[in-house]
Amino acid sequence: MPRLKPNQNCGDFSMRIAKDGTWFYRGSPIGRKELVCLFASVLKREEDGSYWLETPVERGRIEVDDAPFVAVEMWWRTCADPFAPLGSRSAEPRQCLTFRTNLDEMVTADAEHPIRVTIDPESREPRPYITVRPGLEARINRAVFYELVALAQPETVEGRAVIGVWSEGVFFPIDDAPTAQQDDEDDTYDQAAE
Hints:
Structural class: alpha+beta
Radius of gyration: 21 Å
Largest sheet: 6 strands, mixed
């Protein structure tokens, strides 16, 4: 066989990552988690949004339906600010949120690993993500998102009332804060349901 040049472009690898995080090769799911983890370790994303598996020898494009990873578990803990002077108010413990992906990669939400939530303008359905590595995100699954929302608190960001969560001293907005009118409508709906 001829030797490949470094980073030789091999075109399309016929691989796809489904919305639920399942990896497929030529339409068949890849059943070995160790193999999927190996592929994931060389996954890159280009500025144009395309995904590539890239080794020192070759690179090939793959398809990703939504995000390449899924956040399937979250841990809440308190942690100290490593940069705060001892005895100062900022040295008090603060909230840290750590997520586990479907490939057992652990990532703590912070400035380099932000939580991002997009809201569908028509259905108001949230689509939450956390950055795992530069350019690569994990979609936060529904159960974990409910846990995240349970920790949400109101804040004002750029003059806008929002709800969101804190992690490692960084605030991550989730959605606009409910208005008094929305609260009244919710109460009316709850009473009608009873």
